[in-house]
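Researcher: Can you fold this with iron/sulfur cluster in place?
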Amino acid sequence: MSDVATLDSKPGAGCGAPEVLRERGQREVFCGLTGIIWLHRKIQDAFFLIVGSRTCAHLMQSAAGVMIFAEPRFGTAIIEERDLAGMADANDELDKVVTRLLARRPDIKMLFLVGSCPSEVIKLDLSRAAQRLSKRFLPDVRVLNYTGSGIETTFTQGEDMCLASLVPELPAASEGDAPNLLIVGALADVVEDQFVRTFGKLGIEEVSALPPRRSTELPAVGPHTRFLLAQPFLGETARLLESRGAQRLAAPFPLGVEGTTGWLKAAADAWDVKAETFEAVVAPGQQRARVAIERYRERLAGQSLFFFPDSQLEIPIARFLSRELDMQLVEVGTPYLHRQHMAEELALLPTGVQLSEGQHVDRQIDRCRAARPDLTVCGLGLANPFEQEGLTTKWSIELVFTPIQGFEQAGDLAELFARPLVRRTKLEV
Ligand code: SF4
């Protein structure tokens, strides 16, 4: 693979848009299977069947090892060597596994066949398999498929692929239906409930979420649908929703006081909510969030921060930490920059911030070592060696496992970054 690095300030990104260092080279990221870890907890009657190898099963086990399960709702149908060598009909084997699984687990109402590198290597057509199995198991179980393979972008892409596979299944909203608001992106239930309550106070009553908590509650979509992205890594899902007539409400992401206010405001404006009503509804939450954040200012203000590209949450979080906690951004790396979805965020970043897109991990490690930031946000694979070198790190994967969106969680988000710095200080005493 050839290494590429270019400096790029794309047209259309607006005047004064930050320069982006685009790099191509070796990357240090998990694959999209990882998304199953939070998605299986969100859609409570779904099962994620990875069609993959022992490596895939091992990844899931280690990544999920930190979580606690009663009855797991994901598993791996292992592709054995004889499947890889074409000595067995992988479709027959898959049908047998699915039949056994569904007979044992009548609680499963939606089954995702999740593709992996091995299933793609043997060109197992999971979309045909899903259609075949759906025909057999509907109306009890709907079978869908998406791919979790590869390292083209990063691990959060798995959620995008999963939600994109749901979009064609959403019922069509009828012409006469009232406008409805769709929150797109998996949020912790408690956070989703808070947002729905806030929208209710603003007078926005028709609110649903994608993914839904139960597969039987798929929200309707149509030209009257307005949607807010709750996560910044849902490019394909957004594209498919738009192809069904829904309109994305441009907004920053709901992280910190500023991001949450902007996100709620985008919906309020689309529903013509009066400015004074909006102020009255959001002011108490804003105030609570400011107080919660303030507790971490002393620890975080002035500290330098380096983001490796991993979760795709880097830019909104960098915006929050720099504008609300006065942290100094050394470099903000993102695996992929969706300029349209990120436009509101980019406009809020401090001038001159170094953005990088994609990864050439060796070069980025060199830059990080040279800068010796106070805090480095990176994947698990880089964190331990950096700690050994005396750098303080934060695992980026925690950002998708922890409820961090909304006013009530703003303090927790700040605390995630203060914690490693406090720990380092204690170790040094
Ligand atoms: S899908 Fe590919 S990258 Fe992911 S665990 Fe399986 S083999 Fe590895």
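Model: Folded with iron/sulfur cluster in place. The radius of gyration is 22 Å.
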